[in-house]
Amino acid sequence: MSEHEQAMNIPEEEDEFVAQEQALPADKPVQIAFRATLFDARAFTAVNSDDNPFMRGFLALLVVLVVVAVARLLGMGLDILTMPRVNVLQQQILTAITNTNYYASLIAQTPEFADRFAETYGNIWNLIRLFGGYPSTPGLLGVLLSILGVLGSWLMFSSLSYLIARWFGTKVAYNRALGVMALAYAPILLTAIAVIPGASMPLGLIFALTLIAKFFAIRELYIFDPGRNLAVIILTYLICWILLITILLSISVSMLNQFPLVDDVLSLIRFIGYVR
User: Fold this and answer.
1) Residue span of the structural domain in which 51 resides
2) Is the whole-model pTM more than 0.85?
3) Total structural domains in the chain?
């Protein structure tokens, strides 16, 4: 090979090396999840171009949820270790109050005062725990419900946005849409800061970052123009809000119907409307 041919081949080899360096391996869910949190378009492209996009995206989302769950549980444990023993303090104050002559005189005058005082005293300390940031007893249940909530949100948003994109003319497979859209929830990884006692990420910021990541996912998936990409997101959120409001209203009506007074009032309103 002549020196000229060797010189011509060098740029091609360098371009191939640069392309390999820029590509992200889809089979490394930790790296994919981290890069998606940073809005790295290569993460979305890696999952979208993989032979099994659903599994790649789901594993990346699973990494995010596991890290966040472990961080929250560790944060709860550290909170319990570092916060004052509120139960001991509550009992000491209660003992001091009940040993006073004034408390004894109130009990002598009104025997049922003891039960009312115990209930009120307990509610006051529950409020202190709530506003003081004390970990609640069902902490593990709360973490589990959060994970299920994220998975449910992912499936709902992915499905609705896919149906809207199909209406706009896309031919993308459903499993590919699920896999790439899973990366849109990668910014939830930032809530792992909860491992530090007292630290938390604003929910508004997480929502904004997730919204940006959803735009990246839709842009990667459907290759629409920016206007249609925004339309897919807006219409999906609009449908989600309509469904949520409908469900909440149905639950509220069902709960209100359990009270006879509500039925009487509604009957009276219907009667007045009929007379008029």
Assistant:
1) 19-83+134-225
2) no
3) 1
